[in-house]
Amino acid sequence: MTDIHSVLITGAWTGIGLEFTRQFLKNPEAQAQIVIATCLVPDEAADLLELQKNHSNLHILELDVTKFNTFDSVVSKVSEIVGEKGLTLLINNAGAYGIMGRLEKIDPEVYTKILEVNCVAPVMVTRAFLPLLKQSAATNASKHDDGLSLTRAAVINISSIFGSIKVTGTSKTYGSIRAYGYKESKAALNMSTQMMSSELRAYGILVESIHPGFVQTDMTTKGLPGSKQNYHPKPVLPTC
C-alpha cells in the first residue's frame, strides 16, 4: 500500500481528476490520508459532493488555475488542512482541449487560453505550492534515503501522447488530427516538467509527466478518434 499523507488534484470535478479523487479515497493500494479536490464551482460539483458524504478526509476547494492572484488564499487553506507535514502530492490535472480545424479557423483568444491552462497554469500552481511541497520533502526525508518518491513529495503533470512531436507527425491515429493549441501545450508542459524536475530534485521533490491512457471523458468523446472499446475504463494512477 502506498502511504500518501496528502494529495491535491486540480480540475477534479469530472473526468480524470474525479477518478483520481475516487481512487485516492477508495483504492487500498493508493489511499491518501487527506484528499483535496479543486474545481471552479464546488457547489456545482455534484459527484465530489456525493463522495464527501462518505469520506470526511475529502476537502473540496475552489480554484481557477488561471487566476494566479487567488493562489495565495488557496495555499493558505491547504496549509491549514495538511498541517505541519505539508503537501505530499500535487497532481496538475486541470486542462482545456484544443482547436480542431484548419489553420485559418484558429481563434487567437481560444488558442492563447489553452496554452495558459495547459502549460502556464501547472507551472504557476507548482510554484504556489512549492513551500508546502518542500515542507513534505523535509518532513519525510529520513524515510527516503533512497531518493525521490510519491510518498515524500511529488508533482505529477497530466500530459498526453499528443505532446509527442513524433506521434503528432507520423501516427495514423493521431497525426492527422488538427488540435492546435492542445498539442503544443502538452509538448510545452513536458519541457516545463523536465526543467522543474531538474530544479526541484535538489529539495527532494519528484516531478514527472504522465500520459494516463486514452480515457473516456467528456473531452475525448467530443471529436477524438476511437470507439468506446478503445478507451481505458480508468486513468493510470502514478506509481513511482
Q: In DSSP terms, counting alpha (H) and pi (I) runs of 4 or more, how many helices?
A: 6
Taken as a percent bin, the fraction of beta residues is 5-15%
User: What is the N-to-C succession of helices and strands?
Assistant: EHEHEHEHEHHE
Mean pLDDT: 84
- Total strands: the figure is 6
Unreliable spans are 220-240
Please state the structural category: alpha/beta
Question: End-to-end distance, in Å?
Answer: 13 Å
Share of helix, binned: 25-40%
Instruction: Report the radius of gyration as a whole number of Å.
Output: 18 Å
* Strand order across the largest sheet: 3-2-1-4-5-6
Shape: globular
> Largest sheet, described in full?
6 strands, parallel
Please characterize this protein's 3D structure.
The protein is an alpha/beta fold. The chain has helices spanning 15-26, 46-54, 71-82, 108-139, 165-170, 182-200, and strands spanning 4-9, 32-39, 58-62, 89-92, 154-158, 206-210. It has a 6-stranded parallel β-sheet with strand order 3-2-1-4-5-6, sandwiched between helices. Helix 2 links the parallel strand 2 (32-39) and strand 3 (58-62). Helix 3 packs parallel to helix 4 and helix 4 (108-139) runs parallel beside helix 6 (182-200). It starts with a strand and ends in a 30-residue tail after the last strand. The relative contact order is 0.15. Mean pLDDT is 84; it is low at 220-240.
